[in-house]
Design brief:
The strands form three sheets. This protein has an eight-stranded parallel β-sheet with strand order 8-9-10-11-12-13-14-15, sandwiched between helices. Strands 3-2-7-16-17-18-19 form a seven-stranded mixed β-sheet. By secondary structure, the chain is an alpha/beta fold.
């Protein structure tokens, strides 16, 4: 059947039953149901129980999940859509050099079509690997954000797009290091953010959201941080920013403001808003306590922090203090994948190595970070993050044919320690089947991959970086 025909039928399908399989609900009772059944009507979960509880004749489609694992859709709380296209172009560099000499020159050389293509590639990978909701960490005007928003809407994924706001071309203590193509005017940033919010926030039954993104310390003045906080409050939306990612953040904050990064964030009102702080690797005990008191949200990015040698966030301590922690894949150049299953596996391994104790963090807590933790961070806990009656139907089904799945004594342990995004068989987002038999039904995968392969050499040339051989020599 042609892909266009499949897409049309998927869009028109009003009801669905998923029958059989092992369901990890992530509900408050932490229920794991064998031979489960889920009923979906108009994108909403209307029944969760044992197979046979629901009248089969009412469904337009009955999906057989026997022998498979069923999970809530995964939620990525820190994504760079614009970086999927530059995967593998910035290996083995520290964060500031990575930004100054690779990432900013590459992204600063983008055309709007490059920005859209990178976003398509990123969303394609997220959907195929079971991510149904994401928070974009900061869009630049040169990426063509209107087209990106339209693509996100068409793809079926649940996405929050954040417009980057800045008034300086620096990072930390290094002023003027940003590539000219990435520097934006403060007033233009704010105007574009408000326009994007007015056009897109709440579209597609609330599936599309728009937040504000504040650049890292050194890229935003204290007065602008305060303005961002006020604007978010007026719009009733959220904020995301990188904070305490590397020691440079702390040195800059202490030198310029006489206080550590979390204290500074509190002083400019960012802890008063719904804010997702990405990384938070270098938070002190006192900073963690402040974050916990404010019930703040942190996006933990273990792969990125490890690849860039930034350190390891103190996740158990953050959670114990009352901080809500989600997971983020960050960007392709500092992770190489947007696979949340791979990200989950790293969390307990890194924390147990850091603390030298097997009790550092358990698999269920990790899976909660990737589901309900992300939902809470985005203010969507009443809509997604678990498979419960009344919530939107964001559901992932894993095939379990590989030997690594046998035996599966504890399904949650299997998900965290064994599964990868390649095992995703079916993805349902807001009740719409967007991935079936490992194939994305809402995007043209072949064209996206072909265009990406043809486009990256041109971007490298425009950025003055050269080709693959030059990257390897450098």
């Amino acid at each position: 059947m042609p892909a266009s025909k499949i897409r049309a039928e998927a869009v028109l399908m009003p009801d669905l039953i998923i029958r059989g399989g092992t369901l990890v609900t992530m509900d408050p009772g932490r229920r794991v149901l064998q031979d489960a059944e889920i009923a979906v009507e108009d994108g909403i979960i209307t029944s969760v129980g044992k197979s046979g509880d629901y009248n089969k004749s009412k469904a337009s489609e009955v999906m057989d999940a026997k022998g498979k694992l069923i999970l809530p859709g995964l939620i990525d709380t820190h994504v760079h859509l614009a970086q999927a296209l530059i995967r593998g172009t910035a290996d083995d560099l520290s964060l500031v050099d990575w930004l100054q000499h690779r990432i900013w020159p590459l992204q600063g050389s983008y055309t709007e079509s490059d920005g859209l293509l990178s976003a398509q590639l990123c969303v394609l990978e997220m959907l195929k690997s079971g991510t149904t909701t994401f928070l974009e960490s900061g869009l630049h005007r040169r990426y063509g954000n209107e087209a990106i928003a339209a693509m996100v809407e068409k793809s079926g994924i649940r996405g929050i797009l954040s417009k980057m706001i800045m008034d300086s071309g620096g990072y930390g203590g290094r002023s003027g290091i940003m590539h000219p193509g990435m520097v934006e005017d403060k007033d233009a940033c704010i105007s574009e953010a408000v326009d994007l919010f007015k056009r897109w926030n709440g579209r597609s039954r609330g599936r599309i959201g728009v937040w504000l993104a504040a650049r890292s310390l050194g890229g935003v003045s204290p007065s602008l941080y305060r303005e961002i906080g006020r604007l978010a409050g007026e719009l009733g939306t959220g904020i995301t920013m990188h904070l305490n990612e590397v020691p440079e953040d702390s040195r800059f904050s202490m030198t310029n403001y006489g206080m550590r990064p979390v204290h500074f964030a509190k002083s400019v009102g960012l802890l008063d808003q719904r804010t997702v702080f990405a990384h938070m690797v270098w938070a002190t005990d006192e900073e963690i306590s402040i974050l916990g008191t404010a019930r703040s949200n942190v996006a933990h990015c273990p792969a990125s922090n490890s690849k860039l040698a930034s350190g390891t966030a103190r996740v158990p301590e953050l959670i114990a203090s009352g901080v809500n922690v989600g997971l983020g894949c960050d960007g392709a150049p500092c992770n190489n994948t947007y696979d949340m299953f791979r990200e989950m596996r790293l969390v307990p391994l890194f924390q147990r190595k850091r603390l030298m104790t097997h009790g550092a963090i358990d698999p269920y807590t990790v899976l909660e970070m990737a589901t309900m933790g992300g939902a809470r961070a985005l203010g969507l806990q009443d809509k997604v993050g678990s498979i419960e009656v009344g919530k939107r139907a964001d559901i992932v089904i894993l095939g379990c044919e590989r030997p690594a799945y046998t035996p599966s004594i504890d399904p949650v342990s299997t998900v965290v320690y064994t599964a990868t995004g390649n095992d995703v068989d079916t993805v349902i987002a807001d009740g719409l089947t967007v991935v079936k038999d490992h194939k994305v039904l809402t995007l043209n995968e072949e064209k996206i991959l072909t265009d990406a392969r043809h486009t990256i050499p041109k971007i490298l040339e425009r950025a003055g970086i050269g080709g693959v051989s030059d990257l390897l020599r450098n």
